[in-house]
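Why this split exists: single-chain examples teach little about how molecules sit against one another. For that reason, every record in the complexes split bundles all components of an assembly together and asks for one structure covering all of them. Below is a record exactly as it appears in the raw files.
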Amino acid sequence: MVSTMTVRRIMGLETEFGISVPGDPLANPMFLSGQVVSVYAAAHGIRSNQSSWDYAFEDPLQDARGWHVDRDTADPSQLTDIEDPTLANVVLPNGARYYVDHAHPEYSSPEVTVPRAAVRWDRAGDAIALESVRLLASRPGQAPVNLYKNNADGKGQSYGTHENYLMPRRTPFPDIVRHLIPFFVTRQVVCGAGRVGLGVDSRVPGFQVSQRADFFETEVGLETTLKRPIINTRDEPHAVADRYRRLHVIIGDANLLDVATLLKMGTTSLVLGMIEDGHLTSDWSIRRPVAALQAVSHDPTLKTTVELVDGRSMTALDVQWMYLEAARSWLDARADDPVPSATEEVMRYWEDVLNRLGGDVMSAAGLVDWVTKLQLLNGYRQRDGLEWDDHRLAAIDIQWADVRPEKGLLHRLRDRGRTVDLVTPAEVRAAQATPPEDTRAWFRGNCVRRFTPQVFSASWDSVVFDVPGRPNLQRVPILEPERGTRAQVGDLLDQSDDVESLLRALATPE
Amino acid sequence: MPGQEHARPQRRDEEPPEAPEPPPAAPSGAAVKEGLEDDIDSVLDEIDGVLESNAEEFVRGFVQKGGQ
């Protein structure tokens, strides 16, 4: 039985990084993205010139522990290596996926269970992007490649930062749609990253709360690159499909500030928990939600109101307060929250940020990305008398998200102590190399770390070994996201000197 | 049995919040310094030093292919 989840749930974040070569706007982004991924993989002893991502679908589990060693019929020799760097696609020792998606390098974090861990492994992805850029820069004759953690180029293109949340399959999808849309229309005031320019190609001068709002055209749908929907219906659980769905959220911005990431993941998880539990009964549906999403984004004073189907007019902050108060009453009635301090951290920051935004908006600087960015832009506008159509403001918006600490403007503010940080540099470094302990990412990442030469491929729900002396590939399904934790397989991994003994141990019933 | 008691959400209407700092239960991370106004000049001076020198060209050169 899958219990209702609170702030604790299997979750993860995917980031498509903007990529550019200074002075060469025509550089091939697919090739460059392949270089970014390959150089990092090579530096860590991971082969990327092979089909190292396992796309095969899995069988149901049999073993009591969820382990079941499968014999693939394919002979390794039949599967030719792929030399095309644009297909670079690897699993990292921290359990993440690092690959080329369309024309961007993408870091998909390992599965975590609490928002603070989501922050930590997201920041690890930023560090991986930085190391990739540094490695490329150190290659003789290599043109410099820069990466940007943002979502729009100001010319009409957007690329995503997606969230994933595991949900019990039994929760009716119409309930998810009805209760999530008002939340997603308004949560940007807390976790928007801010953008210079209005409209998809920024043709109207100004500043808006969200990077992504202008790129959304519909309420519900399957697309992610065209006619983007507020609620994405991609249903690919990467887990036991009759128990879980993976809610794939495409409306979020790339955040650089820890509190914004914490709140994005934490408050969304809480709202999902309330939906799963049937706690949200009132209909807070917003009329014309796509237009409302953009109207909220286009007003950094946060005075704009949206109209609910029940006739009320409310600001985005009002709507967020309704969700927060519902979450408080829901939590007060529960005694089964497995992570009360993590939940309280999210609730406390949520309340604090809403109060700041409702008073002096600028008091949320250091906590909320768009406010922090706007404060800096306003500093320039006042000192130098710049209008919103000045190129310098657009340049600041882009350079804000440069992953290099010496160039990225958020990094400069962080180094000056102007941000509230929830994770330390040491924690980020550790998360770059090691997986979270409490999900299957532990097994996946440690297999890659320990047995790199024998890991033929891997994916969210499998690790495939090419074992010397065995004619067939050996696939280990990991379909249960909470199996394969350190507590469950740490000793087993530690005691396995090689893949052969690992496979033997996995095949042995407890 | 009810869960542990929590303070009701406190919405402070029309009341300017305190100077930015982490909420009480926040871990001891970097505290946000006083408002930007206090050292705006030095912040801008530092950022002047790292900004791309030709803003117009830099902006024009930042061209992305669409993603998800």
